[in-house]
Amino acid sequence: MEYENLTKIIVIVGPMGSGKTSDLQSLLHKHELASGGEVALFRHTTDTREQAHKSHDGFALFGGPIHVVSSSAQLKEVAGDRYRVVGIDEGQFFDEQLHKVVYELFLNGTKIFVSALDTDFLGEPFPTTMQLMVRPEVKIYKMKAVCMVCGKNATRTLRLDINGNVCKSGAQVTVGTNPYRPVCIVCFVKAFKNLLNEPMLTRLRRPFGTLPSV
């Protein structure tokens, strides 16, 4: 096999609400139409959204097989050589062996699309995502959302507690629209320095999907 003819690994990263899952589904759908099948989507058990795979905005396009797995090893076992194209959603939830599994599938000729958060609610990189992004054969697409505080480009994700206050510690939890909010870097820093005024906090606490009026 000539390695220069192998397909690329595409990693789609960005904050919550930036359209990562929608883009992933669109790519899978196009390949599904072109190949007549042999395309599958993988999710981690941590992702608790509906089985009929949907993004945060309720968008669902891909109609092929969806496998819910608990580890990178299980993903490798299920995928094997069954699929020409593999999509992995919410890649940050997988263990740190994911990059090895993805690379092995890649070397066997599989086209792979991964969507994932690049940083957590504290602004720290997700190791699993970073290990994928540094592979030289990977093509990276960095997505942006809309800041729920000021309306500018959002590159970070904040987490709120049950009282609507910004979380400044804690472990990563399951994916969902609430209580995570996309924000720009300026509003992210202000949040951690307690510099968001009450009108800003009111905008931040609105249900996700309500764009700020600025």
Principal-axis shape equals elongated
Percent helix: 25-40%
The helix-and-strand class reads alpha/beta
Number of helices: 6
Order of helices and strands: EHEEHEHEHEEEEEHH
* Count of individual beta strands: 10
Return Rg in Å.
Answer: 18 Å
Extract low-pLDDT stretches: 1-5
Strand count, sense and barrel status of the largest sheet are: 6 strands, parallel
Strand fraction: 15-25%
Major sheet: arrangement of strands: 3-2-4-5-1-6
Q: Kindly state the mean pLDDT as a whole number?
A: 87
Distance from N terminus to C terminus (CA atoms, Å) equals: 55 Å
Overall description:
The protein has 214 residues and is of the alpha/beta class. It is built from six helices and ten strands. The strands form three sheets. Strands 3-2-4-5-1-6 form a six-stranded parallel beta sheet, with helices on both faces. Helix 3 (98-107) links the parallel strand 4 (85-88) and strand 5. It is elongated.
Strand-helix topology:
Blueprint: E1 9-13, H1 20-35, E2 39-44, E3 66-69, H2 72-79, E4 85-88, H3 98-107, E5 111-116, H4 127-133, E6 138-142, E7 145-146, E8 153-154, E9 156-159, E10 180-183, H5 185-192, H6 198-205
Parallel strand pairs: 1-5, 1-6, 2-3, 2-4, 4-5
Antiparallel strand pairs: 7-8, 9-10
